[in-house]
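pinging the channel bc i need a second pair of eyes. not urgent but kinda urgent?? the chain im working w is below, pasted from the shared doc
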Amino acid sequence: MKKMIAFMTLSLFFIQYYQVTPQVVADKPLRFGIKSGVVFSQFVGDVENMPDITKYKSTQYKTGFFIGIFLKNNFNEWLSLQPELNYSEKGSIFKNDNLQSIDQIGTKLETTITPYITYSLKYLDLAVLLKAKILNSGKFSVSGLLGPTYCFKLYSYCKGEISSDTPFHSNELNKDVTNQVFWDEKFDYALGGYLGANAGFDFNYDVGIFQILSDIRVTYGLTKVFREIVVFDKTSNSIRDLSFIFSLGVAY
């Protein structure tokens, strides 16, 4: 009798569990999705040896655009594999907060200005992410994600500009200006791509025929972004990319 009661109790528990727990594989084992978002990136490592960066000691995150497609393959209720193909805009911003002279750009200093150098790189990212659920509450779930990515370089350019709260006189332009771009050109010392690692969290809400997904991830470059060239002050070059990505998408 006690064994029967225990068996019935255990059976009721499993029935109740599978009623409130969504069966991902039975519902749709394969989903296709699109997403887009924003990227905050900067260079880390041996940045002081980059061209024209010697006097630019302050590093800032560069804001870029992110869009892509993915295929979500559910192994079971808790594990899935998600290959992705994304377009991303990355780079870094350097600035000098203590500029004393700007003779090198042909400008007479009449007020306090801040020069910036912006490195912009556009990539096609191929990522493969393993996702494991850490919270499953009805239609809403949270997963941890981890996996490699390879970023193929599409385009790279560098822009130098100066910014001021009040106008300053430019000898080159022969007029007072507030902001001025003093060069904007393509550069070719970025490598054709780099290998990186992704880690973060994925938030999923099931609304029936499709799912709404949002993820927060960090991508760190495992290999360097730039090749070693003679314009560097030293031969060592260990510059890596560090990016924080926030995206929102839908999967069908």
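so The chain has one domain: 25-100+116-159+186-251. and The chain has a mean pLDDT of 77. — does that match what u expected or am i reading it wrong
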